[in-house]
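Notes from hallway chat w/ T.B., transcribed later so I don't forget. T.B. wanted the structure written out for a chain they're using in a teaching module, and asked if we could keep both sequence and C-alpha cells in one place. Agreed to drop them here.
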Amino acid sequence: MKARGREPATHPDTTANAPRPDDPIPVLAAHEKNPTLELLLAHRSVRAYRDQPLPARALDLILAAAQRAPTSSNLQSYSIVVVDDRALLEKMCRLCGTQRFVAECSMLLVFCSDISHHIHICAQRDYAYRGDQVNTLLIAHGDANLACQNASLAAQSMGLGTCMLGNVRNDPLGVSDLLGLPRYVYAGTATRTNIATRISQPMTRNCAAPASMTGDANR
C-alpha cells in the first residue's frame, strides 16, 4: 500500500470561493496575520480530486504530522492504515455508504483506535491488563481523531484537499475484515487527501457565544 507518484501540480484557482460578505468567518487584521489561523479558518471539505498518486514525500510529512498529535498519557492508542489500492478503495466505498469520492480519491488514510499493543506489552511483561473500561475506548477513539485532524491540517497546508470520513464506522466488522485489522483494533475515522479539482464554499458554523461558568463552582 505504499504511495508513489509525481509532485503536486498547480492547484485550482479558489478566488471564486472567497467568503461571502455575510460569512461568519473572521477576517484577520494586518497585525493579526497568522498562517496557522488562516489555514484553520479557511477549512472546507473537498469531495473531488485529481486522479493521480499522492507524492511519497507529501505522505511522509502528513503521517509525521499525525504522529505529533496530542495523545492521552502518551499511550498513542491508534494506528494508521494507508489505503491506495484501487480495488480496496472500491470496496471501502461500498462499506462507507457508497460515496463515490472514496473510490475516486488516490489515497484513504484510515485512523484506527488501537489498544492491541497495550495488551501485548502487558502480556510480554506478565502484567495484568487493567484497561478494560469505557474510558480506554474513549481515549483510543480520541487519539485516532486527533491524529486524523493533524494529518488533515498538514495536507491542507500543502495545498491539498481533504475530507473526513466517519462512515468507516458504518460496518465495523466489514472494514476490519477488509483491512485485516487485528483484535482490539477498529477503524474510528478516515480522511481522503489529494489535489482538489473542485473546492466548495465553507459551511456555516454555529456562531453562538460559548457557554461560560461563573460564581460558586461548588453549587
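Follow-up for T.B.: Residues 1-21 have pLDDT under 50 and may be disordered. Might be a good example for the class.
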